[in-house]
Amino acid sequence: MKDTSDRIKKAGTPKRIVTTTSVFEPGYPALKAADRLASIGFEGLDMALDYWTEPGSPFMEDGYRKWAYELREHAEKLGVPYTHAHAPGEAGNGGEVIRAIETAGILGAGYIVVHPVVRENGEIIETAERFIDVNAEAYRACIDAAEKYGVVVLSENLLCGASTDPRIVSELVSKLASPYLGWCFDTGHANCFGILPSVLRECSCAPRSLHIQDNNGAGNDEHLIPGDGTVDWNSVVENLMAVNYTGDVVLEAHHQCLDAQDNERDAVLFRLLESAQRLRRMMENPDPSNRPLPRD
């Protein structure tokens, strides 16, 4: 399963608009989720495997491979392939994370986010040096599995200690120097701590993917539709362009969908898609008429 030619985003190819499947609650039928997201107009799916860890979940059962192959076939027939995935837990969590990496490969996803380790002996890791040392060891098994199954594992800037700083996360990736490890820039997590998008220019390597979401700062990780919070999207786009970001427009703005009644979700999802289309136009065309991202 090492042939990644059709699964990993190539520089110069159009940016796909991808949404996490966590816009639906845990256990929501995956085939139905793909049907709805395809009908709205999304171009790719980010499989939230962290939503499939309850006892009896097909991801946790012996038949997980068959389940994943069926999902892949269905999504590809719809024209909305699984391009990304999100693992449960964090690097170093053993079998569950390795199973998620394998499942991502079966789904056809080129990338899977695996959170870095943020605590050691129950204490938050605060220093860059310790964060990098602990995670360099924790990601080794992930990288081995990623090479085996033809997937790129992505670390991510998170919400506590050293993990909040994208520069430290990118330094970890640069230190390990594997083509099967990159990092994902979460716009909302950065905004929680007042970390400006210009931090991307200070990172040792560019992100391979994004978690695009908005919030109102002050530590509130609200995962809102872009434009509904205080993230400076003009600056996000400007700095992504400055570091030659070549990946997709990957949305992790799910809270408003989860809060809506099921019969109201499609309207929220249409608004989410429109915000992503605007962001893609901004990335592809710097004309001022494409800016700023409007708020409702």
Give a written overview of the molecule.
The chain is an alpha/beta fold and 296 residues long. It has one domain (17-290): TIM Barrel. The protein contains ten helices and ten strands. The chain has helices at 30-40, 64-78, 95-107, 128-138, 140-149, 166-176, 187-192, 233-242, 255-259, 265-284, and strands spanning 17-20, 44-48, 82-90, 111-115, 119-120, 123-124, 152-156, 181-186, 209-211, 249-251. Helix 1 links the parallel strand 1 (17-20) and strand 2. Helix 2 packs parallel to helix 3, helix 3 runs parallel beside helix 5 and helix 4 (128-138) crosses helix 6 (166-176). The longest helix is centred in the last third of the chain and has 20 residues, at 265-284. It is globular. The model has no long low-confidence stretch (mean pLDDT 94).
